[in-house]
Amino acid sequence: MKKKFLPPPYPYEQLDEFRVLAEALPGGAVDLSIGTPCDPVPEVIRKAISSETSLDSARPYPSSVGSDDFLRAVSEWLNQCLRVEIPETSIGACIGTKEIVTGLPAVLKLRDPVKDTVLYPAVSYPSYSMGAQLANCRSVAVPVDENWRIDLSQIDAKDIEKAICLWVNSPGNPAGAIEDLGRIADWGMANGVTILSDECYVEYTWSTSPKSVLQNSKEGVLAIHSLSKRSNLAGMRVGFYAGDAELVSYLREVRKHQGFMLSGPAQNAGIAALSDQQHVDQQRQLYLGRLSKLMAIFESLGIETAMPEGSFYLWIAAPDDEWQLVENLAKNLGMVVTPGEFFGEGGKGYIRVAAVATDDRIELLEQRARV
Fold it and tell me: Of 102, 268, 315, 333, whose Cβ has the fewest other Cβ atoms within 10 Å?
């Protein structure tokens, strides 16, 4: 008899005891465990959300695929930011991106019932594996190399044959690595495996221009994008997917039946966010400065750090035991961080630190580190 699915404990709830430790310090906890934006919603988006047009859009059912204006804004942003031309018919709206990350394996399995395997990086966002479990698929972790990039040469031929998709994340969470998306797209075409590219940190790269799988191919690939990080809109749940015309058409039709509809006000917020680059450039500088300040704090503690290639996380090797370091940081600095094992077995021995505290809160950490 097949075992009944039991949801595992939600990883971040395991940090509650460390939040209590951190909160006991004067000034309270500085929670750097989850990539939740801490800065204000940009004014251009605030105005769009509060406009009469936006409020009126809350009344009728929104289009599941996205309004014409929203799809046009996405298409124009893809062209201006990523230098790719994607027609509006090859784009769809989603409610943030976590719902589509965890939901795609189920609908892709229906599309090709012969296949049942989801490939994903061995050190990565845990929702890739969870999506496979929820679809009753096999989840196969693909090893990463010494630079935290996915190692395609390590995928077993039998797993390739059964794969409905390969997830990549670039810049990556947790280590910030930027993948060779052209090579990955070519591998997917050669092996008949759909490439799902999670690009929610695409505009937060520190030494290169934004890189998307769509710059290399528009066939056999799907790029997933979120406005949560770029525009401090995590609570609005605005996302979109774009790429292979046939696959997008299939997803748009399936998602109509599933009832996935991005609200009218959220779409208006998305249009405003995608139409303004200035707030993203300002946010980039904030994150870059905070990463540098956090690196200095760890170096003052004798813990080696390095600037990631992209994203706003520090991925730090623990000198000894990672959970002990998590506890020590909470107890002594009031800093709450994430143990690396949350991102897979290969993440053990590391911690992830999100640069998502305001400057005054990071200054509090600096003061505590000097004591």
Answer: 102
Class of domain 43-274: alpha beta
Each residue's pLDDT tens digit, 121-157: 999 999 999 999 999 999 999 999 999 999 999 999 9
Domains of the chain, by residue range, sit at 11-31+278-370, 43-274
**Whole-angstrom Cα distance, residue 241 to residue 261?**
14
| Chain segment 48-93, per-residue pLDDT in tens | 988 888 888 888 899 999 999 999 999 999 999 999 999 999 999 9
* pLDDT over 70 (residue 108): yes
* Element housing 53 (H / E): helix 52-56
Look up residue 63 and give its DSSP letter.
Answer: P
**Tokens read off for 1:** 């008899």
Q: Are 298 and 314 in contact (CB under 8 A)?
A: yes
Q: How far is CA 239 from CA 96, 99, 266, in A?
A: 4, 10, 10
- Residue 220 carries which DSSP code? S
pLDDT of residue 1: 58
In angstroms, the Cα distances linking 346 to 47, 304, 313 are: 44, 19, 17
Beta strand residue intervals within the chain, DSSP E: 30-31, 91-95, 117-121, 138-142, 163-169, 194-198, 221-226, 238-243, 313-317, 335-336, 338-339, 350-354
CA distance 195 to 294: 34
DSSP letters spanning 297-339: HHHHTT------SBSSEEEEE-SS-HHHHHHHHHHHH-EE-EE
CATH tag, 11-31+278-370: 3.90.1150.10
Residue 123 phi/psi, 5° resolution? -115, 105
pTM: predicted TM-score of the whole model, two decimal places: 0.96
Q: Is the pLDDT of residue 25 over 90?
A: yes
| Domain 11-31+278-370 matches domain 43-274 at the CATH topology level | no
